[in-house]
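Reviewer comment 2.1 asked that we show a complete input and output for one of the modelled complexes. We chose the zinc ion case, as it is the one discussed in the main text.
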Amino acid sequence: MSSTISSTPAASAAPPAPAAPPLPAATPPPAAPPLSPAERERYSRHLLLPEIGPAGQQRLKQARVLVIGAGGLGCPAALYLAAAGVGTLGLLDFDRVDASNLHRQVLFTLEDVGAPKAERARERLAALNPGINVVAHQTELCAANVRALFEDYELIVDGSDRIGTRYLVNDACVLYGKPLVSAAIHRFEGQAMSYSPGRGPCYRCLFPEIRDGVLPNCAQAGVLGVLPGVLGTVQATEAIKLLLGIGEPLIGRVLVYDALSLRFDEFHIERRPECAVCGDHPSIREPRDPPGFCTVEEQQRVPRISARELARRLAAADAAALRLIDVREPDEYARGHLARAENLPLARIEEHGFAELALAREAPVVFICRSGVRSLKACALARRAGVATPLQLEGGLLAWQAAIEPSLPL
Ligand SMILES: [Zn+2]
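Response of the prediction step:
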């Protein structure tokens, strides 16, 4: 959750955790082909470590790890896992690179702005280590696809920036018996924990429910660019330890890092027998969609309006009846927006719906974003929420800029 450290954990701080017993490898290592001379050279500093050695390196070569989110956390985690020789590395992200990502998402450069993150990350990682198989999943994780996606992997690294996705990933890992390494960042602070099936607590034991008023994400609250670098590399470290069954993983311990005071702390948590997913009588039997999730089909069905048609209607006598909702982040909105457009970021809509807009039942509402991706989702959510006549500005403000107002700053 780049976004979301809930502020009131269910478990309170307790004395440091007792040392965990030795951890078995995540799955029994299958017979691996011996390392090639080139691999022995590439991984020679791993081979010198008795805890890894040739057998451990072969185990990493056989490993299948899925990184959720190619963002601030996912980029460094994936870079180090690829460099370490994790044989199959999946990267899941539906988003495209934005210029505001570059201060922390170290897989991308200026020329990647606008490109799909998962695919561009796959190219970078394959260039770093051509000996591994990197798989790009350019999709949004949901209840309908989580099982098929997780089936191909033995360990999940969660670097998503949405609280709803965090619960979906946690629940799926518990239900499907996959080890999970999570981390979260907020402004100058981060936290990390690991889950291993049948051993210790899950994320829901710590934060039982998605609560109202969770902290805003990076786009809303800001974040120190180097912060996810620290937490993402902690996640890569944990993934390697869990795969190899070495050391003492962050199971039953939450690591808390404060960059301003430069302090690492930890608190101990227990599995809660009443946990809805990993407890003794679980009520969650299937993964659930995050709040605000809508399917591609729902998004394809939304009514669109072209830039030219919108301009015509805004010039017409009844223009005042048209509500314009700009769903970009406040800093993007501040750079330039359509006259009369109101700002309500998509993330707020996903968490709180449309209540704060006080929409008149009959007034048409036009949802607007930069390129037409976020507005499509906002429009689909509006339809589902019963907004009478939602429309989506096709091609977003880029289309408006091209057809109507070339001087609009974006
Ligand atoms: Zn639990």
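The pocket of zinc ion is lined by residues 201-202, 204-205, 271-272, 275, 277-278 (CB under 6 Å). We note this here for comparison with the apo prediction described in Section 3.2.
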